[in-house]
Every structure is written in structure tokens, then in C-alpha cells.
Protein 1
Amino acid sequence: MFPSPSILDKDAFKYSVLKIINNGFNTDNQLIHHASTALHTMESVTMPVAQHTIDVLQLLQAMLEGAHFTGSQRYTAAMIIIAHQQGKASLERLAHDWFYFFLWPIKKAFRLSNRTLSEMPTPSADSAESFFSSNSDLASDFGTNNHKKRFIQMLSERDGHRCAVSRSLDFRFHGGDNPGPNNRVLLDAAHILPRSILEDSSKYSLPVTLDIIKSYAQLPSELINKLPDEIDAPTNGMMLDHPLHTLFSYSEWCLHAIGEHKYAVHWFGNSWYQVMEGTEVFFQDLSQDGISLPEPKFIALHAAVSHVLHSSGTAKVLDSIYDVYSDDEYSSVLSSEQSCFEETTLKLSLMQLASDSHQLPTSS
């Protein structure tokens, strides 16, 4: 069983949101101010998640702030404004949907992405396949070993066999001249948008998640439709040393755009790596073979989600639940007395996480 959207699937709500978005009389700043004012008048309310609680106001405010990174302020503000007009319960339902269909699936996928590509199982058909099967552009070898090897090879060549942030050299590289620091480390081919985001045991919830991603990241429809192609494409990756990859997957740091394909490192958590705060990262094709650079919208989405997770306190809640479930201590997190629909769904989802049978969608 999987939760159903409580407001984002309502046609009347979506129509009202679109009217505000398409209303040229209100500037983005006016809508942001209107939404912020609406939230400031809202009484404090919490949303139970297993043995934890999430502050609904903080989550909605964090979503509004995070929209700055992706340019989706108008969409996010309109959502909050219409929900506020419909009353407190609608604001709670909006927070519910953004949590269960956006933040949780992406956070889960980020945690899963901490496994190296060699540890990721080769996917077979699953229930999510039906969602993508109607798209003729899907790559026939999505998720196969050839796809993974090509992803690693192209990223390594494009990034000069070096970590995009620390510039450390991959210890496996034994080529010719390679200007830069001589220190050698283990490098990973890191996904920006985790490939397991396409992993969902419900063909009904995956489209909702992708629709939120499309709107919040301002992704064009053709990019969403080709997401299985893009997941293992150079546009969705960068070479990182292993610890940095792990912390990137935990959303402990992100990249803030400061120019064309130029970024500054920003840290959220406590780590000695924080000495890299502000480090500039400039992506270029060092292979000179025309390998595509990282998609700025993917980098912006990671930055936005990282901000929301930390600013709202959601990161600590989800990490805490994940860590307990990944140790098979299911009963200690969701007691039999806590039988609300969302908690049961979260339990089932985390039980899937703890197993080794994760499957990614593939084309038919």
C-alpha cells in the first residue's frame, strides 16, 4: 500500500495554482511575499512521522526558500497561497504531499546512491516500467553494466580523472601527463540526481514524484520523459573522492551556481571537509571529445533539496528512521499502535531499502 496525494492530485487545486502562475499582474517577489505572509499567520502544527514530528510551517517555509535555487519561486508560492486560501487543513495536506512524494523519495534515493555503481543491481522490469513504457525515447540498455561502465568512463575522461572539488587524482589512472596535485585517492562516478529516484514499487506514486520534480526543478517535459537516459549520462554526474561522494549523498554539501558551469561549495553539516567551504568548482570537458557537462538544473535541484532537508529538520528525521530500519530494527521505529497510513507506507518503503533486491525500471 502506498499513500495517495491529499491535495496535489485535485484538479480544482491545480487549476487555481495555474491561474496564479499565469497571472502576469503579480511579480515573483509579490507572490513570494504573499506566501511568506500567509505562513507567518499560520499557527504552529506538527506532522507525525513514525516516532518523530515535523514542523509543517518550517517545511513549507523551507520549500519556499529552496525554490530560489531552481527558479521555481512562482510555482512554490502559488501552491502555498492557494492552500492557505483553502484553510489550515489544506496547508497541512500540501506539506504531507511534499514530504511523502518529494522529500522522502529523493532522500531515500540519495542514501541509496551512496553505494558504488558496482554494488547497484542490474534492474529488471517492475511496476514502474509501465510509467516509462509509453516513452519511445528510453534507452534499451538503461541500468545495464555497459551503461554503468560508459558512465564511469565518460565522467572520468571529461573531469580529467580528478575529483571535481578537491582535484585529487584517481589512483587508478596511469596515463600520461595530468597537470594538477599529485595526491591520489579513490574516485567515484557520482550521480547528481540519484539513479534510484526511478526506483518505486508503485506505478501510481512515481508519476506524482516526477511531476513535483519537474515543477520544482523547472525541468522541461522532454527532459523528464528522457530521465532514464539522463540518469546515467554525463549531464548527471561528476567525479568525486569517495568521502565527498558519501557526504554529497547525505546532502551535507551542495554546489551553488556562481557563473556558467561555475559553482561554489556550500556545507551544511560538521566535517573537516568544511575547510572547502566556498571552493570554486568549474566544469569543463578536459577530454576535448565533446562530453556533455553537468546539467545546471540537476545541480540546482540537489542544492534546493539539501537546503529544504536541513532547514526544515527533515534530514535528521529521515536519517534517524533510515538508520534504524537499515539495521532491521523495524518494530522499534513504528509500533503497532502507530498505524496511520503514512507510517505503514514508510515502514514498507524502508523495509525495501534494507534488502538487496532493489530494482530499477527498465524499458520494455
Protein 2
Amino acid sequence: MPPKAPVGKPVTKTTQGQPKKKTPKQPLPVSDRLKRLFSSLCAQVDGGHFANAIKTCDKILRLAPDDTDALQTKLFLLLQTERYGDALALIDAQPQFAFEKAYSLYRLHQEDEAAEMLRLIKAEKGEDDRGVIHLEAQLNYRQGSYQKASDLYNDLLDNTEPDTEEHSDILTNLEAVQKHLDFINSGYLRSLDTAGIAPNLESLPPPPPPQSTSAIIAASTSAAVTGENEQKKAAAPKKVRAKRVPPGVIPGVTPPPDPERWLKKSERSTFHAGHKKRKGGGGATQGIV
């Protein structure tokens, strides 16, 4: 009985020297890619990896440029990382982010533009927005309108719950504003009294001007002569005090003492100068005769 042929997978014949062509991998649909990117974005934001989260937002916006969630998240991340210039570039053509634009302008020290944006926001949404009131108070404080800032902070404080973070922040800002107001109203007068400046300084007459040009020239000439005399005094050699000179020593005549006087004679540099070396016997040794 002839042996049975082994049963196995059919062998596909290929051309010698040529590998089999692999089927190209199909790309994921855009919806699946967006789901994966949003999952990564949530993990990055929760972990505080804001730089990587901004890159993920850019990937999402390349796939879906009109995605509002990705746009808002990127704007939040740019403000958190203090990249206010990039935030302005992102929301320049987005009218729904008017408050964020005003805040970015305020942080970039563009106070006039920020005040104009706040005026437009209040004209559109009214004057009851707490975020707008906070920003307006900070803007007035920076511009030196301390009384206006104080009024705004007091209005906010009246409508804030006591045991909240906002309440403590308002109290801190209000205290800073009140310090400036106290100094403007009465503090500078006490400072003038402490410094010994008369309170009626503004009513005093100005000092008289110099009589003529010759007086100025004479004053400058005397100052120059005084300076030259002081330079000559500084350049002159100082005299040796008599109390510090030992008896029998004449400064400039008596030779200075030997600097090696504190060393042993055998350690001085002049010890071997007057002694000749003893001559040896030619190096031969004595032996038994």
C-alpha cells in the first residue's frame, strides 16, 4: 500500500528572488483618529503636560479645523503657559473669545486696547459679568485709578460668598488698593514731615538764579584749583612718623636691617660664602699596609 501524501497548506509559488507583496495597511478613519487624539489630550491635561497637550491640539485642528473643543482647549493651555502672543494670534478672528483677547492684551501691557475690548464686551453682554469686573478692576489698578478699582472690588465683595477663594483674592487686592489710596490722601504728608521737608514747599519762592556768567566761571575755576591741590597732596610722599623710628636710625641714611636676621646662621644665604670646601684625599680609602 503506497504511503499517503502529507496534508498541509497549499504552497504558493513565487518568482525566484522576488518577495511576496504585502497588502498596504489601510489608514484609520478620521473619526477613530480623533477619538485617540482626544483620549491622549485628556491624559496630558490631567497630568499637567501642557506642552505636549498643545501639540495634540494642533494635530486635532489639522484633522478638524472647526472643532470648538480643541480650539478652546488650546486657548486655555496657551493662557496657562503664559503664551499670550500665541493666544492673540489664535483668537484674532474668533469673536466668541473677546474676554480672552482682553485678558491677553492686559497681560501684554496693552492697556488701551484691553480697555476698548472691555468696553465692547460690556456694551454687548452688560455690566454684570464678574470676570469682566475683575479684569476691569485690575486694569484700573495698573493705570493708577485706585478709587475706581476700590469701588469695583467693593461691589464684587458684596456679592461673594465669605468662605471662597474668590473672596480671599478680592480682600488681598482691595488691601493693596487701599494702601495706595491712604498714601495719596495722607501718607505722603507724613513722609514729608519725616524727611524734614516743609509742608508749604510748593508756596515757597524758587531759589535765585546766579548773578552773572562770571560768577559761574569763578566757581568752576575755584573748584578746579581745589581739585588740583587735593591731587598734589595725594601724590606727595608720606613722612615717617618720628615715634615709630628706633633710636639711632636715620630714615634714608641707615641701611635697612637684614631680612634674614630671624633665621639661623646655617640657614642664611651668606653662610657658605666665606667658607671653602675641604679637599679630599682623591677618593682613595685607607687600607692595611
